[in-house]
Write a structure and sequence with these properties.
Layout (H helix, E strand, L loop, with lengths): L4 E8 L2 E6 L4 E5 H5 L6 H4 L4 H4 L3 E2 L5 E3 L3 E2 L2 H6 L1 E3 L1
Antiparallel strand pairs: 1-2, 2-3, 3-7, 4-5, 5-6
Length: 83
């Protein structure tokens, strides 16, 4: 199954709870998805709570920030756990 996100349910620092097209609510820890890359200049902006909380869904059903940072929804699904 190809996954995509249908709803952002809640955000907290570096973690987001989402509803996927399968109907599942899953918790995604972005720090775990990125690992040490979270400190790279491009991704370090996600460490700013105001920037991180501005997450939106794009037209492909994935999380994005300012149309600059986004993640493959299949990767997010694989690196999340059910709520």
């Amino acid at each position: 199954m190809i996954h995509f996100i249908t709803e952002i349910i809640s955000t907290e620092q570096l973690a987001i709870t989402c509803r996927f097209n399968s109907g599942e609510e899953r918790h995604v820890n972005i720090r775990k998805v990125l690992g040490d890359a979270i400190h790279a200049p491009f991704f370090a902006r996600l460490l700013n709570p105001d920037f991180f909380s501005a997450v939106k869904l794009d037209s492909y059903g994935t999380l994005c920030w300012n149309d600059e940072i986004d993640f493959c929804p299949d990767v997010l699904y694989a690196n999340s756990h059910p709520v």
